[in-house]
Automatic annotation (TrEMBL), chain A:
Its EC number is 1.8.7.1. InterPro entries: BFD-like_2Fe2S-bd_dom, BFD-like_2Fe2S-bd_dom_sf, FAD/NAD-bd_sf, FAD/NAD-binding_dom, FAD/NAD-linked_Rdtase_dimer_sf, NasD-like, NiRdtase/SiRdtase_haem-b_fer, Nit/Sulf_reduc_fer-like_dom_sf. Belongs to the nitrite and sulfite reductase 4Fe-4S domain family. It catalyses: hydrogen sulfide + 6 oxidized [2Fe-2S]-[ferredoxin] + 3 H2O = sulfite + 6 reduced [2Fe-2S]-[ferredoxin] + 7 H(+). Catalyzes the reduction of sulfite to sulfide, a step in the biosynthesis of sulfur-containing amino acids and cofactors. Pfam families: Fer2_BFD, NIR_SIR, NIR_SIR_ferr, Pyr_redox_2, Rubredoxin_C. It comes from Paractinoplanes durhamensis. Residues 424-471 form the BFD-like [2Fe-2S]-binding domain. Pathway: Nitrogen metabolism; nitrate reduction (assimilation). Residues 630-765 form the Nitrite/sulphite reductase 4Fe-4S domain. This is assimilatory sulfite reductase (ferredoxin).
Automatic annotation (TrEMBL), chain B:
Pfam families: Rieske (PF00355). The keyword Iron applies. PANTHER family: 3-PHENYLPROPIONATE_CINNAMIC ACID DIOXYGENASE FERREDOXIN SUBUNIT, FERREDOXIN-RELATED. This is tRNA-(Guanine-N1)-methyltransferase. It comes from Paractinoplanes durhamensis. Residues 2-96 form the Rieske domain. Keywords: 2Fe-2S, Iron, Iron-sulfur, Metal-binding.
């Protein structure tokens, strides 16, 4: 029998939680109780309804048919009076009793009305003309009444009060906002920010604002005629809206014996204290002393709750939320997060104010991290700041860049200002308009847009810009792409988990990984899995040729016309007359259309048809240079101390030794190395995945994570060592650590900064985690398993391995150069 | 339907190009043993589709990683479609209809 799930509360928290449970395939018999007689609507949008911007029908999230379609019994307009935790029953106001196996309490909050004289009429509820602003019914009543009256006072200058004041202006002539604290939105903003906001509200919107105003009495015999403040001042009005805050609806829980402080106290799985079958979510929950009144934490709580109650992830835990918000308050842009100002002596407060324009901005930095920020009147930097705040990411050296878009090359281009036809992805020719069209067409993740448009799928340098355009075009409704963390798209696991599962289930072939972990075979995941499995299992790896990319099937690099390039190994870029002669003879005999020197100091034979590859390899009789694989490629060297007047180390010999040892080692991305004989850097070692630089005194510097492709980066200094042997060992250790930890196609220039050079020094040089011996051992095993793939030429590994796939029609062929 | 070759000409999970009445056809042998046939030429930039990687649904062109549905020939990455052809196996022989 299916378990019975009862949800008390049909607001945003209750309904969202049920959606999350359904999304996880949760098999429950679901009953929901809602105090309000409607389906579930977006409470945040009530301000828009009040302001006349949005129609009532536009704010419903789930209408009644949604409940029916999902087999949910909804009791709308029925309140739960009591929970019997022992009998597992809930008792409703209509006299019915309902049993449950799992209970979710999502009762939300209600408006808090301070004890003001005259707010209530004994026996009749609120005084006529007094409203709170919480539900759709409140909003309807307020609109109806306001239309027939003239002057309103809103009590409370927080977010809700400001929204109410702005909305009421739509319906009557004069609005006064009375706030008990010294400045508006004092929970979120400091005094300066609050004053700036006040000036804008008063001057631009024409709302009269009274701060430090304690309302002591609501006047009027039958209907409201005014409010009286503590100093004796009376403000005439005929409508009063109390928006002085909210209080969690926890009375039923408290009466039923649950632990209630400010809200219902929950653990990290969102369960009420000592109640394994009762969950609490949303504004009525108190987690680690925090009660949240915003929607973002609620979404996070609902996910954890659903993971746990469905059993999809019993270890799911909610750790609290960093509350960052960006909103339009009464038409003014406001963003706030974390601290309002400096709290510790060491906190840096960077502040900018331009009162005439209604702009105030600040950021608070502690230990190089953003711990707070406020933006009023110009929230252009909000997205950047929220990201830095939530992720704790590194901040720009020039702190002013946090508050302003500075000129110069470091500034991010404003996405909004870009013309639609501007090309964003220069590799695949995708414009801003193309990206926006994909978003408009329903793609709501960066990965989805990249797949649909191919933007960012070339060299990858435009990815951050693509991401910003997608975020902008989606207007904040961007969805987190879980696949972004997967090692390959077809198996839903990040690399460490995937490797663990592969070891656990002893998966030695790509097809067995799909069968055990991934479900359907995925063409776009095969190559990454093949690389990983080969690295992990070495000789034991079960090599399925279809898992390989064409380059790896035929050990050559496919070209635009479907022919291949052949690059024989030339260790350290050193060759001999005999070798050159042989290459020349082969090129002549086979009419090779183009012979070219590569950037890696080798010779490239281009335009070779697939079916001729084995013959060419046999004629060359040289090992493969691996110029086609995600693997160790070459070691570029300079002539070093042998001939060069300036050389201080034998870079050529070391380069040859490195290539001899690490030839053909596969990894998550290409590995291009160099050894240079002095800091003049003729072999460009500073911009290699691993570059070695000889320095005076017989020492070698090892740089890692450099690049000089689409992305240019100088490597970070990993170590300075005293011998070539140490270079050999550290190189192997670094490459192995990268092989085991880098994401698929993540080059070292991205991986090194991601894990951090200090971490690499600790692990690889100081061996602080005791990993070095294992890394060295596994690398040695891989080195031992090396076989020259070009020996695979007498017997094809598969039927038709080298059979042509070229069509008979004329293609744009690379022209023959004489 | 015409016989075009043996099913053993194609390893599991790969494709091979066959010439049929002067047309080049890429024939794929899926890992579940079934066979699909598409035009051999990628309509994007002329890449050899038989050299692409496949799964049970799609082939990915080796040149620019555009993808096509193996059953219908429809592009999965916004390119023009390729023609697909009925193909079957009889006694290990491949038969194809243009």
């Amino acid at each position: 029998m299916r378990q019975r799930l009862v949800v008390i509360g049909n607001g945003m928290a209750g309904a969202r939680t049920v959606e999350e449970i359904l999304a996880r395939g949760g098999e429950f018999d679901i009953t929901m109780f809602g105090d309000e007689p409607y389906g579930n609507y977006n409470r945040i949008m009530l301000s828009n309804v009040l302001a006349g911007i949005e129609d009532e029908s536009g704010i419903f999230l789930n209408d009644l048919s949604w409940y029916a379609e999902n087999g949910i019994r909804l009791h709308a307009g029925v309140r739960i009076d009591r929970i019997d935790r022992y009998a597992k029953m809930v008792y409703a106001s209509d006299g019915t009793a309902t049993g449950y196996d799992k209970l979710v309490i999502a009762t939300g909050s209600s408006a808090f009305v301070p004890p003001i004289k005259g707010a209530h009429v004994p026996g009749r509820g609120y005084h006529q003309g007094v409203f709170v602003f919480r539900t759709l019914d409140d909003t309807r009543a307020m609109i109806r009444y306001a239309k027939e009256h003239e002057r309103a006072v809103v009590i409370g200058g927080g977010l809700l009060g400001l929204e109410a004041a702005r909305g009421l202006q739509n319906h009557l002539g004069h609005v006064t906002l009375v706030h008990a604290a010294g400045h508006l939105m004092n929970t979120q903003l400091n005094a300066k920010a609050g004053k700036t906001l006040q000036t804008t509200i008063e001057q631009k919107l024409g709302i009269e604002v009274v701060v430090d105003g304690m309302t002591t009495e609501i006047l009027g015999k039958n209907a409201v005629t005014g409010v009286k403040l503590a100093g004796g001042r009376v403000i005439d009005c005929d409508v009063v809206v109390v928006a002085a805050g909210i209080r969690p609806n926890s009375a039923v829980a408290a009466d039923s014996g649950l632990v209630v402080e400010r809200g219902i106290v929950v653990d990290d799985q969102m369960r009420a204290v000592d109640e394994p079958d009762i969950y609490v979510v949303g504004e009525c929950a108190q987690h680690r002393d925090q009660v949240y009144g915003l929607v973002a934490p609620l979404w996070e709580q609902a996910k954890v709750l659903a993971d746990h109650v469905t059993g999809v992830d019993r270890s799911a835990a909610y750790h609290g939320s960093q509350v960052a918000t960006k909103l339009k308050v009464a038409g003014v842009d406001v963003a706030s997060m974390g601290q309002q100002g400096a709290e510790h002596a060491d906190d840096e407060l960077i502040e900018f104010a331009e009162p005439a324009k209604g702009i105030y901005k600040n950021v608070v930095v502690r230990d190089g991290r953003l711990v707070g920020a406020t933006l009023v009147g110009d929230a252009g930097k909000a997205a950047v700041l929220i990201k830095a705040f939530e992720k704790g990411s590194e901040l720009p050296e020039n702190r002013a860049a946090l508050l302003f878009d500075l000129g110069g090359p470091v500034a991010e281009e404003s996405v909004a200002d870009m013309p639609d036809e501007e090309q964003v992805c220069n590799c695949n020719g995708v414009s801003k308009g193309g990206i926006c069209a994909a978003v408009a067409g329903g793609c709501k993740t960066v990965g989805g847009v990249m797949d649909a448009t191919r933007a960012g799928k070339g060299c990858g340098t435009c990815k951050p810009l693509v991401q910003r355009i997608v975020e902008w075009a989606a207007g904040g409704t961007i969805e987190e792409d879980p696949a972004a963390s997967y090692y390959v798209p077809g198996v839903p696991m990040p690399k460490p988990e995937l490797m663990h599962a592969i070891r656990l289930h002893q998966l030695k072939s790509v097809s067995s990984v799909f069968a055990t972990l991934g479900g359907d075979e995925d063409a776009k995941s095969k190559m990454g899995l093949a690389s990983l499995l080969k690295m992990m299992w070495g000789e034991e790896y079960v090599d399925e040729r279809d898992a390989r990319f064409i380059n790896d099937r035929v050990h050559a690099n496919i070209q635009r016309d479907g022919t291949f390039s052949v690059v024989p190994q030339m260790k350290g870029g050193v060759t001999t007359p005999a070798q050159l002669k042989r290459i020349a003879e082969v090129a002549e005999r086979h009419g090779v259309p183009m012979v070219k020197l590569t950037g890696g100091q080798r010779i490239d034979l281009l335009g070779i048809p697939k079916e001729k590859l084995p013959e060419i390899w046999a004629d060359l009789d040289m090992p493969s240079g691996y110029a086609y694989a995600k693997s160790f490629r070459t070691v570029k060297t300079c002539v070093g101390s042998d001939y060069c007047r300036f050389g201080v180390g034998d870079s050529t010999a070391l380069g040859i030794a490195l290539e001899e040892r690490y030839q053909g080692i596969e990894g998550p991305g290409k590995m291009k190395l160099a050894v240079t004989g002095c800091p003049r850097n003729c072999a460009e070692a500073y911009v290699k995945d691993l570059g070695v630089v000889a320095i005076d005194g017989g020492k070698w510097e090892i740089y890692v994570g450099g690049a000089a492709g689409a992305h240019v980066r100088k490597g970070d200094l990993l170590a300075t060592v005293g011998s070539a042997d140490e270079v050999m060992v550290l190189t192997g250790r670094f490459l192995q650590y990268y092989r085991e930890n880098g994401n698929w196609l993540e080059r070292t220039y991205a991986w090194v900064p991601r894990v951090g050079i200090e971490h690499l020094k600790k692990v690889l040089v100081d061996d602080a985690e005791g990993l070095a011996a294992g890394l060295d051992e596994r690398m040695t095993a891989s080195v031992g398993a090396y076989r020259d793939p070009w020996k695979e030429r007498t017997e094809p590994a598969t039927p038709g391995q080298f059979r042509t796939s070229l069509p008979l029609i004329v293609l744009p062929q690379v022209p023959v150069r004489a | 339907m015409k016989p075009i070759g043996s099913v053993h000409d194609i390893p599991f999970g790969e494709g091979r190009t066959f010439s049929v009445d002067g047309r080049m056809i890429a024939v794929f042998r899926l890992r579940d043993g079934s066979i699909r046939a598409l035009d051999a030429v990628c309509p994007h930039k002329g890449g050899p589709l038989a050299d692409g990687q496949i799964d049970l649904k799609q082939v990915v062109c080796p040149l620019h990683l555009n993808a096509w549905d193996l059953a219908t020939g429809c592009s999965l990455s916004g390119q023009k479609p390729v023609a697909s052809y009925p193909v079957r196996i009889d006694d290990d022989l491949l038969f194809l209809e243009l």
